[in-house]
Amino acid sequence: MLVAEKRVTSLGPDRRDFLRTALGTVGFLTLAGCGAGGSGTPSPAASAALSPPPGTTGALIPVDPASMAAMRSRPETFLSAYSGLGGSASSAAFMRTKLGSAFASLTDAGCMTAFATVVASDSAPAGATSLPNMTASLRQLLSNPALNCGHYCKLATLLALLGHPELIPPDAAAGDPPKSTLHFMVWLADVPMGTGLHAQLLLANVLDNAYLLLDPMYAFALRIPFVGAGPQADLSVIENAAVMLQTPITPDNLTLLSPAPTAELPPMVPALTGAALGPQYILHDALWGAEGWDLRIGQIFNQLGSPAPV
Amino acid sequence: MSAPLFSIPAEVLAAIVARPEKFLSAYSTLGGGADAAAYVRSQLGGPFATLQAPGCLATFAGVVAYNAVPAGTSALDPTTATLHELLTASALASQHLCRLSALLTLLGNPALVPPELPASSQPKATLHFLTWLGTVPLNTGALTQLVITNVLDQAYLLLDPQYAYLLRIPFVGAGQQSNLTVAENVATMMQTPLSSGNLVLLDPAATSGVPQMLQVVLSGALGPEYLDQGATSGSDFWDENIAQVVYNMS
Predict the structure, then answer these.
(1) Touching check for B244 and chain A: CB below 8 Å?
(2) Which residues 136-155 in chain A show a CB within 8 A of chain B?
(3) How would you class A258 by CB atoms within 10 Å of its CB: exposed for 0-12, middle for 13-18, buried for 19 or more?
(4) Hey, are the CB atoms on B86 and A79 less than 8 Å from each other?
(5) Which chain B residue is nearest to residue A162, measuring alpha carbons?
(6) Which phi and psi angles does B143 have, rounded to 5°?
(7) B83 vs chain A: nearest CA distance in angstroms?
(8) In whole angstroms, what is the distance from residue B90 CA to residue B71 CA?
(9) Euclidean distance between CA atoms A151 and A42, whole angstroms
(10) pLDDT digits 0-9 by tens, A197-245
(11) Can you tell me the distance from the alpha carbon of B101 to that of B84, in angstroms, rounded to the nearest whole number?
């Protein structure tokens, strides 16, 4: 079922751009937990869990080093890497098989974003970095020696948009047909996952009667089944998903793309599937919260062709 | 005068200006939504029957660019202008219109970014700027057009988003020379006269004021001596510039 939900609106573009430029320049746009308080420093638990790159040990969908090297020098080869998955079967079919039966209805856009999550996860270890995640370019993200959760999410987003530009937020306008969209789920520092402030990706309209939550830093995919009457039109995608996370989720909806990161962060899986999360933990902020990221990502194509960020 | 081959409703153009990704949904609805590439091929006619999907998408991007902004002088820097800046400009020169067409094309097919792959690799379609000097006998002054490789059998596709036409440039002799750039190969092959069947006017009105241009394009009068090879204006420069578009996505 495709759903249309409340769209994010907020600050005017001029003010947003000014603040992002100013704050990004001085390094305030890194996320907490995976960089709390703008320091860019991961929490101790996160640091322990996330070196080497999270997807590289026991990975469900290994990315061979040659493909990763090709993507670093020519990011568009991400698309050929994706199309090469599964041999003679379709890439999406391969991804669905790997992710498990709960993901059987995952669309190609969802499958490609899951693969982008794998690639982002493999790209670099988690760690402190001065790279401003909101303004970082694809080249910077693919070549940076360490990333935080915001960087991982942005890298996965940029790669996914190469193949499925329609995923760009905002959601379809009221009255228009619903469309698949990608959003940043930004959690407050007290979210009970043991991460501190943390960002994940949330996709709408890529699964039947469910959201797709992707975490490129902790390397997992979670299907969030709709509960009750489904999404509420007066809530945003992020809010609806957080509400649905208040209901326990059966383990088959969770697929670890790599087992190590979550194994070393014990509170995370129980929090995800045990209804410990909820909308009270969402960071709402027009600059660096879920809304801010929606607005930022929504500008990517408008800004296509701009010179490399400094 | 004949009507344009592709009509783009004003509301569709407005939607693309507001949200550039709407270009892709506009493309996908061509011909009733069945197969946009087949529709484009059918509109272009026989010589373009082998035009592959990336070439069809680029053709539609050129049509959108042509329809979105009138040709004219612009203070925008064509080497750094963003998609939003180009789509909202009041007038654009040929470099800008080519950049706008290129950016729209890359939205739907980022793999078209230059450079071409090494000769040892499987060939892939790539998009290039063809930059003519002011002395080119097209009576246009300096002019920039787009060339797309590997989207036609044994031919290049030339797209002019300012004058709204497509040209199929068949390979001559032994075909592409590996020691020449795409622009040089194209210009070399344009020294051989082309039959008029290789030319398709996307909007006849765009060239009605410059009829000699089409005659010259077909006549074999062009050639590599008219190429702008400048370090900051030639085809090589633009190859590098466009290659950065995907790198610099942010």
Answers:
(1) yes
(2) 136-140
(3) buried
(4) no
(5) B110
(6) -145, 145
(7) 5
(8) 9
(9) 12
(10) 999 999 999 999 999 999 999 999 999 999 999 999 999 999 999 999 9
(11) 12
In eight-state DSSP terms, residue A195 is: S
Q: Do A308 and B111 touch (CB under 8 A)?
A: no
Residue B189's contacts (CB-CB under 8 Å, 6 or more residues apart) are B156, B169, B170, B171, B172
Strands (E), chain A: 181-187, 198-207, 210-215, 220-225, 254-256
Predicted ipTM of the assembly: 0.94
Q: What is the pTM of this model?
A: 0.91
In the 8-state DSSP scheme, what is residue B123? P
Q: Phi then psi for B45, rounded to 5 degrees?
A: 100, 180
Dihedral of CA atoms A99, A100, A106, A111 in degrees, nearest 10, equals 20
* Structural domain spans, chain A: 13-298
Q: What part of B 64-93 touches A (C-beta under 8 Å)?
A: 80-86
Alpha carbon distance, N-terminus to C-terminus of chain A: 42
From the list B24, B80, B249, which residue is nearest A300 (CB)? Answer: B249
63-102 of A, contacting B, C-beta below 8 A: 74-76, 79-80
Chain B interface includes A19 (CB < 8 A) = no
Interface test with B, best of A20, A76, A141 (most B CBs within 10 A): A76
Q: Which tokens belong to A207? A: 């699964």
* Arithmetic mean of pLDDT, B76-87: 98
Residue A302 has its nearest CB partner, among B84, B108, B247, at B84
A307 touches chain B (CB under 8 A): yes
Closest-CA distance, B1 to chain A, in angstroms, reads 36
**Distance of residue B30 Cα from the nearest chain A Cα, in angstroms:** 17
Closest CB from A138, A301, A305 relative to B81: A305
Each residue of A251-290: pLDDT tens digit? 999 999 998 889 889 999 999 999 999 999 999 999 989 9
The neighbouring-strand residues paired with B167 are B158, B199
Confidence label for B239 from pLDDT (cuts 50, 70 and 90): very high
The burial of B171, by beta-carbon neighbours within 10 Å (0-12 exposed, 13-18 middle, 19 or more buried), is given as middle
Give Cα separations from A18 to A12, A13, A15, A37, B125 (angstroms): 10, 8, 5, 20, 39
The CA angle A290-A291-A293, to the nearest 5 degrees, is 65
Cα B86 to Cα B68: distance, rounded to the nearest angstrom: 9
Confidence at A28, pLDDT banded by 50, 70, 90: very low
**Residue A96 CB coordination number (10 Å):** 23
Query: How many Å apart are CA B55 and CA B149, to the nearest integer?
Result: 9
Beta B155-160 vs A181-187: how paired, if at all? unpaired
Average pLDDT value for residue range A94-121 = 98
